[in-house]
Write a sequence for this structure.
């Protein structure tokens, strides 16, 4: 396996330099663009790592999965999915125009959806809500504590005009209650979690393992919640490149504009990749390539 | 003339009860729906009034003209029209979807446009900016001071989620700077001005008179500004009913969801109408009917 | 007057070379791009001409007015306007997306609208219907017969995929009956009429004259029909540049992608201009400039 | 297994009467709405059938898979996917508005996509092209010959205004060459194939079996083609209900407005269901319910 990961690295490395850094958050452009890391954690706990597997980056959209898991725990499936759909939207991750004609966002993996989901997390303060997200994230990624980038958080708050517009549209449509700024802050705190691709691979392995901890019989996530997350990853995890990714890789996965991708191969393994440059849809170029290679070699496609 | 206005009243009265009260501002639904007033002020200062010509209502969208006039004064034509267009949009007054693909709003007569325009008014505080609008409005409407409805203002702030979304979209697009909440408040203060249809007819007469005061040779508005306002009224003044209104009435006019309509017949007269029930595009039903009658009888169409 | 037209020519000439030839009809790109003609016909029959006033070009969209006039004659106002609206659309002249959510086209001056209108012209064959259009056009333009460009007609049929799509959408929406190809052919025949700007100015003068012939008391168009055409020209005549044109010129006008513009100043005069290069919305660049100059000098704006 | 299928039938039967018959093809409304059939064919050739498994109905959109397979064979992957994408669109199956801004249709499973794909099938005549589709369909469904409904074909040709509009838009966009009517006819012939749910289950089993015949080692479809079809079914197979279906069922599937659904569980089995009443997205209500039950009982979800 280690050998295959090395070969995946060698192949994906050939695409370094392609794509562009995320521009909407100035802080993200400061990353070294030549980083590449690939980590695998199998469901029985073995791990394989090649490249920059301990370089830290912000989790960004991959946190949408933690937000959703906590919201489901707090508000229940029916409440959450009365406010957000589960259909791929065919649009950019920050698109607003469908909220003109449809009440709620298409799915929890686009920005509008994640903000609506954040509004379903209970707590008296932002920090209380964020604590739940952090605790779940730490458990799923096998660390005692998850740090956050205060710089990226601040940057997202300052530049997040579009997200603010999405939130107010949803409040007008009746799918977001309470203090819009609090929900946006909850979302940005989650996005600013610092992770590495080894941690992502661990999260993927937990999802692949039906939500159960790898070292104990503890359910970090309910079994059905884990399946729901994997399903949404498969149909909406790479924004409006989800369809092509399904063909090239075929494994439920979620990308983040920080450069990370997390994939969960049911019953077998989790994979984390990291490389900062993104394609025009906002997904890591080399990360996709690494996953494509691994899928072919390990026959991972679920389809 | 008084006779013709009476006949216009009698005809328009037959349509009382048609349409619906504006629902997006709860305060507006409290109006007596059976009110109807028609007032004419000619460019030489004569006035003709029939019906509820001194019933007060909030000016709402008709204030967009004052906002634009002040913004032009403060920031100049080129700056203002680098941020907002002058084309009819074909969409509802509060539509957001075009801001996904176009940088600025289509014209200053839809909500997004008026908010962008509010952002072009100079002043250290909201109140400073509002003062300018109030002063111009008072001069143009021939009163010493214009009152505002604190209740409607509060109501608009509380329920204006869509407008807030529009403002943040525009900030993201780079056509609205500074503190979004201040611009929205400026806009809402302007909307909450209390007027009657006699005052509106006076404003119309000033516009018809090339911006010049009716009693003096003072230019309340620049001559070109007056023409610009009349032109924008003609193409965008009744939202996405502007085209049909051009055919049925053919006079530059601006409607407000408070139930008012103000029309300016170049060189001849201003007309103000008031009746609270609106058609599905947000324009007073009986007000349109009264104007249609007057246009036919007085051969007002400019086309 | 002749002096003013000369000065308008001199000023507009300075913009020759700006813009681009219509590309969607290959035949239209063969025009000499440096042509410019300006013709005025007053309501009392005087005429003033400077430049290429007898160069022939295809009338294109200006024919939409003749199509509408014949359709109103054949099917009546209520029938025609149950199928097409009278609102500016805010979109490109050949846009289709609104037909997804709205039954009929926004107005008769965009392609979809003109095709729907063609479907309201009675006749057993295409040629019968086209004859009516040609007869009306000849009378209004003061010629015994209007020629057509067989080459442009053929070209439009061959390349008109988008128009065909519009027609089939409308047939699906129930606003276009019968043989779609016949309606498209009727439309293309009308578009292929060969005119010069002197002829256009004559047409404008007839419209300006309330539809009455300039040499007799014969009504070539009903008075109300003439006002309807002028009104639609004002709000929709220059596609999605109608609003800016209203500000810069302020005279009801209709442009064609062949390079012509026809304007009708109520009670005073008609103006025809010709220059082939178009702005990005499809309107002749130098024609607009000439009209802008004339409007300023002759104080033509109706607003 | 037969027991489980019986229980699935009993459960799904409880939803008979819900939904509505397809209305866009009058012929389809003539079906008995109370029919329900469920058929399973395993990859080793065993079959289990309950209910109306031999009632014939038209295959409709499920034929899009055969069209795509033949087009890939004739024109190659690169050519086909230069004209059509592989992303879920988030829109109705017959939506046109995206073709205004995007060159080609989102994926081969919506109408526009299938028409574009039909244009990639080689052949001198419509019948030659249709023959290829019929031959592949017969082989995959385990019958010697597939019949067609001339009545439904005629009906689709007559009422297919929207599809004609889609085709002409694509011709204008340069993603559909040649005679549009021929491509539409090819598509309609494919849609009018008469199948039963036993046949569909057989097709599903062949897809599940990597394209290999169940009785021989013959590849009816290339292994990669089979995976491509399964992948597209997973992301786009149930129109804009694909996401919810992924959660409730989780098996690559394709629905048709004739009432059929075909599912392919990789390596295990194919499932065919039939029940005519459809949900508002165009998918058989009881068929979905049957698949939901089977997925739960047999743990079929691939996610």
């Amino acid at each position: 396996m280690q050998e295959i990961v090395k070969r995946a690295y060698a192949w994906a490395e050939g695409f370094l330099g392609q794509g562009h850094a995320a521009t909407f958050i100035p802080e993200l452009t400061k990353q070294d663009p030549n980083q590449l890391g690939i980590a695998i954690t199998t469901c029985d706990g073995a791990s394989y790592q090649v490249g920059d597997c301990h370089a830290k980056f912000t989790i960004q959209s991959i946190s949408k999965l933690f937000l959703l898991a906590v919201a489901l725990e707090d508000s229940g499936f029916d409440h959450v999915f009365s406010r957000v759909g589960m259909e791929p939207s065919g649009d950019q991750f920050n698109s607003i125009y469908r909220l003109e004609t449809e009440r709620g966002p298409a799915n929890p993996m686009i920005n509008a959806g994640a903000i609506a989901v954040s509004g379903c997390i209970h707590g008296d303060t932002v920090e209380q809500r964020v604590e739940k997200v952090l605790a779940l994230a730490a458990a799923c990624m096998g660390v005692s504590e998850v740090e956050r980038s205060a710089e990226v958080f601040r940057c997202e708050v300052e530049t997040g005009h579009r997200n603010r517009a999405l939130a107010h549209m949803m409040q007008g449509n009746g799918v977001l209650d309470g203090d819009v700024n609090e929900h946006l802050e909850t979302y940005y705190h989650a996005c600013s979690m610092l992770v590495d691709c080894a941690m992502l691979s661990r999260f993927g392995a937990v999802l692949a393992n039906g939500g159960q901890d790898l070292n104990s019989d503890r359910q970090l996530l309910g079994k059905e919640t884990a399946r729901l997350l994997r399903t949404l990853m498969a149909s909406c995890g790479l924004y409006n490149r989800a369809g092509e990714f399904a063909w090239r890789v075929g494994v439920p996965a979620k990308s983040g504009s920080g450069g990370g991708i997390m994939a969960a191969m049911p019953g077998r393994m989790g994979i984390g990749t990291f490389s900062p440059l993104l394609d025009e849809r906002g997904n890591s170029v080399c990360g996709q390539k690494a996953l494509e290679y691994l899928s072919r070699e390990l026959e991972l496609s679920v389809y």
Summary: The beta strands of chain D are 37-42, 47-51, 57-58, 194-195, 253-255, 260-265, 269-274. Chain D has twelve helices and seven strands. The interface with chain C takes residues 95-97, 99-100, 161-162, 164-169, 171-172 of chain D (CB under 8 Å).
